Amino acid sequence: MAATTLTGSLTSDPKGRSLDLRPVTPTIGAEVHGVDLRAPLVPETVDALQHALAEWKVLFFRDQHVTQQQQIDFGRAFGALTTGHPVQKAADGDPEIFAVDTRRAKALFGHGQPRDPFAPPRRTLTGWHTDITFVANPAKASVLRGVVVPPYGGDTLWTNLVAAYEDLSVPVKNFLDGLQAVHQWHGYDGETRDDRDEGAGPPSAVHPLVRVVPETGEKALFVNPVFTRYVVGLSDRESDALLHLLFDQIERPHFTVRFRWRPDSIAFWDNRTTAHLGPVDLSVAEYDRRVERVTIAGDVPVGPDGFTSQPLVGDLFV
Question: Cα–chain-centroid distance for residue 129?
Fold first, then answer.
């Protein structure tokens, strides 16, 4: 771990670059101060932010009065961007922006409207997840900007999947290192992209249960309750029991950080080593919330045993 001064701000990488970083917890999350994201980033700052992201998994920026284009430019400094989402429609305007807006969700799911008492439960998008793991090359990283922020509520949580893996016993880690699981799109029934072939079935992919981060060699649990369906080769009882154990592991509070949004706040996270939990309170709140995301294209995960993720239904995400 990089050295941090006792005053809690300056963190340097091995090459001597420095940022004003203020860790939020000992395990995950750091605030970045003194960087203006409206201006193009110099290579030294990009390198320092990449190092900080590898260490802290999610970085937080406050009071960044950026436009959509400046948010896109920031994301592009760290790699090629994908379209907004492989299934859902992007925000109006730039196809690289994906918006999560409570006003749209309430309209789609009829929150506040009378319902048939015997109707099936409403679908919900809330749950711990790593973005778009139902494709064979999930996002490398994401940049999320607060656009409409409620005065209270609407927080997001992240969990450190490397720390969650390292906390397991050696026999369990050895067992997991050779397993794979199928991840599948959850069947959200809102609007989908115009080029989406609905007859193909939900996009899905098979991934290692543990993935190795190329830059650091770290091992991270690669499961999440929203998209991971079953472990390959196990019986249904065995798969359910193992996934229940792992879902419980990644949700343990001491691997997590909670972020309270303010207008013009930005969260930048490594999608390979984290899962996150969107707001669980907005469906009962009177306030609206809109956040906008850009996604940095990812590589194909590789497990400790050399297994490489494979698409089952659908194409690579570009």
Answer: 7
User: Rounded to an integer, what distance in angstroms lies between the CA atom of residue 57 and that of residue 162?
Assistant: 9
How much of the chain, in percent, has pLDDT values that exceed 90? 69
| Window from 9-18, 222-231, 263-272 with minimum mean pLDDT | 9-18
**Does residue 255 surpass a pLDDT of 90?**
yes
The pLDDT, as a whole number, for residue 5 is 32
Neighbour-count burial of 81, counting CB atoms closer than 10 A to its CB (0-12 exposed, 13-18 middle, 19+ buried)? buried
Provide the 3-class DSSP secondary structure of residue 293.
strand
CA 80 – CA 77 distance, rounded (Å): 8
CA distances from 281 to 94, 127, 273, 307 (A): 29, 12, 25, 39
Q: Is the whole-model pTM more than 0.90?
A: no
What pLDDT shows up at residue 104?
62
The DSSP-derived string for 137-157 is S--SEEEEEEEE--SS---EE
**Catalytic positions, written as ranges:** 129, 131, 276, 293
Going along the chain from its start, the domains and CATH numbers come out as: 10-313 (3.60.130.10)
Phi, psi of 284 (to 5 degrees): -110, 5
